[in-house]
Design goal:
single chain, 124 residues, mainly alpha, Arc Repressor Mutant, subunit A, 2 domains, three-stranded antiparallel sheet, 6 helices
């Protein structure tokens, strides 16, 4: 059974290579494209493309389906979205709180509480 950390590692490893990112761009633009069409877009061997596709499939970033003799490829954004949600939810809340705390500290060191600052602006 694959752990959540193993899945994250596979996604990051897959995204680390420029060719794989270009393959994902291609699949996003042309869902259902065949392996041969993908290979034709690159100046590397079909075998190298197949290895890149395997890494992307292992990371669950690409889904393939057989259509007769052709293998159709589709981009699966779910693993990337899971990474985004993991860090933006936790870290966004944390950093929003830190920015607010810094704002209050700056206002306090400037000589007043936020309420006093607002009243002064309103009475000027």
């Amino acid at each position: 059974m694959e752990s959540a950390n193993d899945q994250l590692d596979a996604v990051f490893a897959a995204l680390a290579h420029e060719t794989r990112r270009r393959i994902l761009d291609l699949l996003r633009e042309r869902p259902g494209v065949g392996v041969g069409e993908v290979a034709a877009e690159f100046d590397i061997s079909r075998i190298a493309i197949m290895k890149h596709l395997q890494a992307l499939e292992d990371a669950h970033l690409v889904v393939s389906e057989k259509d007769g003799r052709m293998r159709r490829l589709y981009f699966n954004a779910a693993p990337i979205r899971m990474i985004y949600d993991r860090w933006t939810d936790d870290y966004s809340g944390y950093w929003a709180g830190e920015v607010t705390r810094l704002k209050y500290l700056a206002e306090q060191s400037a000589g007043g509480s936020p309420q006093k600052t607002n009243r002064k602006k309103g009475t000027s």
